[in-house]
């Protein structure tokens, strides 16, 4: 069985929390937090994908 990569697990959890936060921000009708959390979520997801591509190229 493979070992757990805790850094990537943490990154995935942060992306999930970010997009969950968007739902909460929508409930509070806060445009500022909606935009910030969407940008943060996509930024973290892009960073994770770039890490995956770098690892696969080796």
TrEMBL record:
Pfam families, sorted? DUF5325 (PF17259)
Q: Which InterPro entries match?
A: DUF5325
**What are the UniProt keywords, alphabetically?**
Membrane, Transmembrane, Transmembrane helix
Q: Which residues cross the membrane?
A: 31-49
Q: Does this entry carry the keyword Transmembrane?
A: yes
**The organism's place on the tree of life at top rank:** Bacteria
* UniProt-recorded name of the protein: YlaF family protein
Q: Whose protein is this, by species? A: Aquibacillus salsiterrae
């Amino acid at each position: 069985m493979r070992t757990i990569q805790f850094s990537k697990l943490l990154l995935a959890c942060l992306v999930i929390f970010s997009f969950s936060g968007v739902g909460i921000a929508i409930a509070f009708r806060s445009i500022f937090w909606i935009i910030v959390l969407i940008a943060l979520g996509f930024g973290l997801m892009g960073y994770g994908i770039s890490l995956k591509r770098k690892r696969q190229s080796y």
